[in-house]
Design goal:
- With 261 residues, this protein is mainly alpha-helical.
- The protein has 2 domains: 37 residues, no CATH class; 180 residues, Cytochrome p450-Terp, domain 2 (Orthogonal Bundle), CATH 1.10.230.10.
- 52% of the residues lie in helices and 4% in strands.
- The protein has a 3-stranded antiparallel β-sheet with strand order 1-2-3.
- Strand 1 and strand 2 form a beta hairpin.
- Helix 3 packs across helix 11 and helix 6 runs antiparallel to helix 11.
- The longest helix is centred in the C-terminal third of the chain and has 24 residues.
- 33% of the residues are buried.
- One of its GO terms (biological process) is tricarboxylic acid cycle.
- It is an enzyme of class 2 (transferase).
- Belongs to the citrate synthase family.
- It comes from Pseudonocardia kunmingensis.
Length: 261
C-alpha cells in the first residue's frame, strides 16, 4: 500500500495485517504491557519501568470517579436520560472538564515546574501565594481531608526513596501545603488534583498532559455512571427534582401594553 505524507505520525504504524505501537507489535503489547504502560508508551515513545507504571496507574485509579455531585458525572447522567448514546454522555462529561472543574492539576503542575529550581523554596512559595488568589490543588469543598491524598503522596514518597522519581515536585507541593495550613485551625491539605499533579510532574509529563490524563481517568467514571443511568428508565432528568423549581430572581410579574394595531 502506498504511503502518504499528508499525515505523519510516530505513534502508530498501521498496515494491512500489522499494527505497531511506537514500533512494538500490538500482539506483544497486548501480552506484555498494562494499560498504564500503554498510555505511557503512546504519549512518551518508550515503555515505563514497572515502578513508573505502577505510580501512573495509582493516579489514574484515584481520579476515576467522584460521584454524581461532580458536575461532569451529573452531566453524563443527565445526558443519558435524553436518549443519547453512551459515547455522547461521556463526551458531554469530558467537555466540561475545563479550567475550573478538572484543570487544577495542570495549573498546579505549572506552579510546581516554576518552583522546582528555587534556591529558597519557602520564600519562593510565599511569593507565589502572595500573587495568587488561591493555589489550585489544595482544599476540597466536600472533604475535610481528601481520602485520596495520603495513599498517593505515600506512593510518591516511597518512589523517591526507591529512586524511581527525584522528589522535587513532591517537596514543593508539601511546602505549599505546609504554608497554606500554617496558623489555621483547620489544615488545607492537597486534594486529588494536587496529589495527581505531583505524580504526573514527578513522572515527567507536561502540564497539559496532566489535564489529559485526568480526563482519561475521569472518563471511566463518566462511562460507569452513564451506563448505570441508562438502566433507570428516567427520561429528561434535569438538575433538580421535578417537584422543585429553580429560584427566580427576575422582575415581578408584569404585562405588556396592548400593541394598538
Amino acid at each position: 500500500m502506498e504511503r502518504s505524507t499528508w499525515w505523519t505520525t510516530a505513534v502508530s504504524d498501521i498496515e494491512p495485517g500489522s499494527i505497531r505501537y511506537r514500533g512494538y507489535p500490538v500482539e506483544e503489547v497486548i501480552d506484555g504491557a498494562s494499560f498504564a504502560s500503554t498510555i505511557w508508551l503512546l504519549l512518551r515513545g518508550e515503555l515505563p519501568s514497572p515502578a513508573q507504571a505502577r505510580l501512573l496507574e495509582r493516579a489514574l485509579v484515584a481520579g476515576a470517579d467522584h460521584g454524581p455531585q461532580a458536575p461532569s458525572i451529573a452531566i453524563a447522567r443527565m445526558a443519558m436520560t435524553c436518549g443519547v448514546g453512551v459515547n455522547n454522555a461521556m463526551a458531554s462529561a469530558i467537555n466540561v472538564l475545563g479550567d475550573v472543574h478538572g484543570g487544577a492539576g495542570e495549573q498546579l503542575m505549572e506552579i510546581l515546574a516554576g518552583l522546582a529550581d528555587a534556591d529558597d523554596l519557602p520564600s519562593a512559595v510565599a511569593d507565589v501565594r502572595r500573587r495568587l488568589r488561591y493555589v489550585p490543588g489544595f482544599g476540597h469543598r466536600f472533604h475535610p481531608r481528601d481520602p485520596r491524598r495520603d495513599p498517593l503522596v505515600g506512593a510518591v514518597t516511597r518512589a523517591v526513596a526507591d529512586g524511581v522519581v527525584a522528589g522535587r515536585h513532591l517537596e514543593v507541593a508539601l511546602e505549599i501545603e505546609r504554608q497554606l495550613s500554617e496558623g489555621r485551625e483547620r489544615a488545607v491539605p492537597m486534594n486529588i488534583d494536587g496529589a495527581t499533579a505531583i505524580i504526573y510532574a514527578e513522572l515527567g509529563f507536561a502540564p497539559a498532559l496532566g489535564r489529559g490524563l485526568f480526563v482519561l481517568s475521569r472518563a471511566v467514571g463518566a462511562l460507569a455512571h452513564a451506563w448505570e443511568e441508562s438502566g433507570s428508565g428516567a427520561r429528561n432528568k434535569g438538575p433538580v427534582p421535578r417537584d422543585q423549581l429553580a429560584a427566580y430572581a427576575g422582575p415581578p410579574p408584569r404585562h405588556l401594553e396592548p400593541r394598538g394595531d
